[in-house]
Specification:
alpha+beta; 3-stranded antiparallel sheet
């Protein structure tokens, strides 16, 4: 009789361990899925905000001589363009910088968290 009680206890412990392992695996899978969804959503939002700032910047530069004579946005002839550049997009700060020499001007757009 003692042998069967010991065997029952051992079987119960093994089954409990297996159930705990399965539960842990399911929890990890669900947490990984949630984390991946959050990262994907955040990445997509960042790309959208960056593209929005880029389109606003191109709209400001359209029709101007910027990039043909100089890549310096601080030049007095481009004061109106500098005022037109986006400062925020979707509640995030935007920094637009220009570098290079014409006709190879380089535009860098940074969308940062507040």
């Amino acid at each position: 009789m003692n042998n069967s009680r010991g065997q029952s206890l051992a079987t119960t412990l093994v089954m409990l361990t297996v159930v705990m392992m399965v539960t842990t695996m399911i929890t990890r899978v669900m947490l990984n899925r949630y984390t991946m969804t959050t990262r994907t959503t955040s990445s997509m939002r960042g790309k959208f905000l960056s593209q929005s700032a880029q389109h606003q910047t191109y709209a400001c530069l359209e029709g101007s001589m910027f990039g043909q004579t100089t890549c310096n946005i601080d030049d007095p002839q481009f004061a109106a363009i500098k005022g037109c550049l986006p400062k925020t997009v979707g509640g995030k700060d935007v920094t637009v910088t220009f570098s290079g020499t014409p006709p190879l001007c380089k535009m860098t757009i940074t969308v940062a968290d507040k």
